[in-house]
Amino acid sequence: MKDYRIKEHPVLPIEEREDIRFYWNNTPMNAKKGEVISSALFANGVKIFGHHPKDGSAQGIFCANGQCAKCTVIANGIPVKSCMTKVTANMIVESVEGLPKLPEIDEKREISDIEEISTDVLIIGGGPAGLSAALQLGKNNIKAILVDDKNKLGGKLVLQTHKFFGSVEDSYAGTRGNQIGEKLAKQVMDQENIDVWLNSTALYVFKDKKVGILKNGIYKLVTPKVVFNAAGAREKFLRFPGNTLAGIYGAGAFQTLVNRDLVKPTNRLFIVGGGNVGLIAGYHALQAGIEVVGLVEAMPTCGGYKVHADKLKRLGVPIYTRHTVVSANGEETISSVTISQIDDKFKPIAGTEKTFECDTLLIAVGLESVSEFADECKTAGLEVYSAGDAKEIAEASSAMFNGKIAGLKLAKKMGADVNDIPESWYQKADILKAHPGKLREETASKEKTGVFPVIHCNQEIPCNPCSTVCPTNSIHLAGDPIMGLPTYETGCIGCGKCVTICPGLAISLVDYRKDSENPIVTLPYEISNKPVKIGEKVKCNDIDGNFLAECEVVSILDVKSNNRTQLIKLRTTPKIATKIIGFQVQDEEVSAPSTTYNADGTVSDEAMVCLCERVTAKEVRDLIRKGITDMNQIKAITRAGMGPCGYKTCENLMKQLFREEGVPTEEIELNTRRPLYVEVPLGTFAQGEDDE
Predict the structure, then answer these.
(1) How many other C-beta atoms lie within 10 A of the C-beta of residue 625?
(2) How far is CA 237 from CA 81, 281, 433, in A?
(3) Whole-angstrom Cα distance, residue 677 to residue 673?
(4) How far is residue 499's CA from residue 465's CA, in Å, rounded to a whole number?
(5) Using one digit for the tens of pLDDT, what is the confidence trace for 371-415?
(6) Please, what sign has the CA dihedral across residues 527, 43, 587, 600?
(7) Backbone angles phi, psi at 646, to 5 degrees
(8) How far is 638 from 511, CA to CA, in rounded Å?
(9) Residue 252 predicted with pLDDT over 50
(10) Distance CA 623, CA 630 (A)
(11) Which residues contact 139 (CB under 8 A, 6 or more apart)?
């Protein structure tokens, strides 16, 4: 059987891991020790995990984060979420065909006492915000329990192989996200006052101010004085015909497979969404040796950082702005996607359709705060703090710094001797979560002597590693020390540190010192599993991905101090030396559209809104047009939101329909939350034995 594991990666180390045998529908397969079922199945080429009981459509994954239930399988007779369940030796895993049959259990279970624990602070979420807050609480001798549903701290930092933006001083800018996660996790684990519960899920905040937590499968009740919600965010979904096909899933799921579990889940990827999440996922795909066919964005420009979009374009990935997905096409799993231009009202323009062959469609159309813990704390009268994406959607650099501030404020509130937080910190926090600012025009340097950096970062974003790392203080940020646009003045010695550290790979180094007619340009390169060789000619391009010339590679620097960023030196001409910022690694043929398309140019209302219960947009829209503005009533009529995901996916799509029908937000009655955020077998609440 073919192995779909990543054998080589330019950033991540490929370590040998023990193989364990399991069985998928009676077929023996190998997994890696500690691997979850979904990743093991993808590694063995299995992308369809079962079929829906209502219409028989194929089920795969979507979130890979325990939020939905698309990846449900039967493991040793029990229905489980395959993305959250580890493979064990000789485990029998079966697909869900229709409604799963519950196992017959003969033994009677004794109902035992539930352990109750008190703590000063309960931190929900071990990502950048939760870790930063925990670190401040621990340093100030505040006792806290930190719960996270994964087996490793770091949250989404674990999935990030790119270098971070923000401030070097406050958020490790210039360091790769997974390395930041490891640093923060180690610091928190070293805190005596912080009790870390991994593989633990917060289930609900009850009215008596107790929080139910499933710790390693054992149910416990925690009574905190304060809850710190750092649970992060969940991904939004998108409405289009074919959105139920297997092979359509979120960016977080993709990054989990590729960057955490080193599984190659696709050969040809198409991306929907030009925010930072979608743009970064495209870059991660190229690093994993995956073809990125294209990316669509509904707005006139990508909402993510321009340097991220520029990076994709010059590597050979086309970006289609003012476009949307018209349909996903295929039988059980996606085989192609059809896109179309859209007008000012975001309606597809007939006759502009293009279809592209792909085996995966990655959805990256925004995030929604996991705010339910904070909401229920307020209902119960339990004091709650929030930070990171659980409070407001922003970059991880912002989550770290705002988590630090919130942690210090909480420590002070609980009696710790903490100085007042200076106003400058709040100003910096606002900068770190700021949206991309104004653009400046790309201007070519006129210098033709010596050595100097050319900075192709032309958008105000929170980022200062280049100015921080320069040993001669030759690079300065105009105006603000984090948000200002970087400019070079004088004094470059050609060390290349700015080229190496730049998170946007937006700085080149031009050197005229040895040859005034044939200057050497140094470029950063992080797709080394698509190697270039000395003497090879590469297709060089400008910031917008436009071809400039073929240039010869004269040197490759691949040293440990550069943190897995290669420095590629090219010989070129004075005419284009300052314009070159990258070279193409993906051939144009990869992104060529098919000769036919599979849609009529309209977005059908037969597209699914509720994937769990198979409720279409038309069914919901018809009820809205009858004057129903209560989602609970719509749920009672259609079952939309009644499925196992607990309306975590469909609520946003239903809100979109209300907006399209002109219903003001304040007139919408939202779904009543369920007693538990995550499905739990009833037997779990009966067994309270010690889990040590």
Answers:
(1) 11
(2) 19, 16, 24
(3) 8
(4) 10
(5) 999 999 999 999 999 999 999 999 999 999 999 999 999 999 999
(6) negative
(7) 70, 45
(8) 67
(9) yes
(10) 10
(11) 191
> Which range (110-114, 169-173, 650-654) has the least confidence?
110-114
Can you tell me the distance from the alpha carbon of 429 to that of 324, in angstroms, rounded to the nearest whole number?
34
Order across the sheet with 50-51: list the strands.
58-59, 50-51, 96-97
C-alpha–C-alpha distance, residues 616 and 459, integer Å? 41
> What single string gives the DSSP state of each residue in 541-570?
E-TT--EEEEEEEEEEE--GGGTT-EEEEE
- Residue 519 CA to residue 571 CA, distance in Å, equals 6
* Residue 308: Cβ within 10 Å count: 27
User: Phi and psi dihedrals of 40, rounded to 5?
Assistant: -65, -40
Q: What is the mean pLDDT of residues 139-161?
A: 95
Rg (CA), the chain: 26
Determine the distance from the C-alpha atom of residue 466 to the mean position of all C-alpha atoms in its chain, rounded to a whole number.
25
Tens digit of pLDDT for each residue in 259-307? 999 999 999 999 999 999 999 999 999 999 999 999 999 999 999 999 9
Sign, CA dihedral 29-34-38-42, equals negative
Q: What's the sign of the alpha-carbon dihedral 144, 148, 151, 156?
A: negative
Residue 577 confidence (pLDDT) above 60: yes
Return d(Cα 102, Cα 518) in angstroms, integer: 73
DSSP code for 354 = E
Structure tokens at 257: 């497979």
Number of CB atoms found within 10 A of residue 610's CB: 26
Contact 24, 199 (CB under 8 A): no
CB atoms within 10 A of CB 592: 14
Q: How many helices (H) and strands (E) does the chain have?
A: 15, 36
The pLDDT tens digits for 37-90 are: 999 999 999 999 999 988 888 999 999 888 888 899 999 988 899 999 999 999
268, β-bridge pairs: 291
DSSP string, 385-400: EE-GGGTS---HHHHH
- Torsion-angle region of residue 543: left (phi > 0), alpha (psi -120 to 50) or beta? alpha
- How far apart CA 85 and CA 469 sit, in angstroms, is 43
In the chain the domains, ranked by start, together with CATH numbers, are 1-104 (3.10.20.440), 115-233+369-432 (3.50.50.60), 451-590 (no CATH), 605-692 (1.10.10.1100)
Tell me if 483 sits within 8 A of 461, measured CB to CB: yes
Q: What is the strand order of the sheet 291-297 is part of?
A: 248-250, 360-363, 268-272, 291-297, 319-321
Counted residue by residue, the chain has a size of 692
By C-alpha distance, which of 592, 598, 549 is closest to 570? 549
Q: Are 195 and 145 in contact (CB under 8 A)?
A: yes
Contact 128, 153 (CB under 8 A): no
Tell me how far apart the alpha carbons of residues 391 and 373 are, in angstroms, rounded to a whole number: 11
pLDDT 10s digits, 400-409 = 999 999 999 9
Say how far apart CA 124 and CA 231 lie, in whole Å.
6
